[in-house]
């Protein structure tokens, strides 16, 4: 199965749908991953960048940011760390 290391922009375009052409490309990757045709990998730095951009640029609240980021599949330890950081949501 092919493995793709995904940049923050793919996730942001997919969630925010602020650019239809880029959303279609991102959606294609996420659909293939959902069908287990490919594996998407988000590095820790990318997840932090996603959180930062959602908070600072798009002014999303912590609860919504947690909802979006927790849809990603990644190691349970990272989910637990993120959940602990956002425990007041």
From TrEMBL:
InterPro entries for the chain: PIN-like_dom_sf
State what protein this is by name.
PIN domain-containing protein
Protein's organism? Candidatus Roizmanbacteria bacterium GW2011_GWC2_34_23
Task: Note the SUPFAM superfamilies from the entry.
Answer: PIN domain-like
């Amino acid at each position: 199965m092919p493995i793709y290391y995904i940049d923050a922009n793919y996730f942001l375009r997919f969630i925010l749908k602020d650019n239809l052409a880029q959303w279609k490309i991102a959606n294609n990757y996420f659909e293939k991953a959902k069908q287990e045709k490919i594996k998407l990998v988000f590095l820790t730095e990318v997840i932090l960048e996603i959180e930062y951009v959602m908070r600072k640029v798009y002014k999303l609240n912590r609860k919504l940011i947690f909802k979006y980021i927790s849809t990603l599949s990644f190691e349970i330890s990272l989910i637990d760390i993120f959940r602990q950081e956002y425990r007041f949501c």
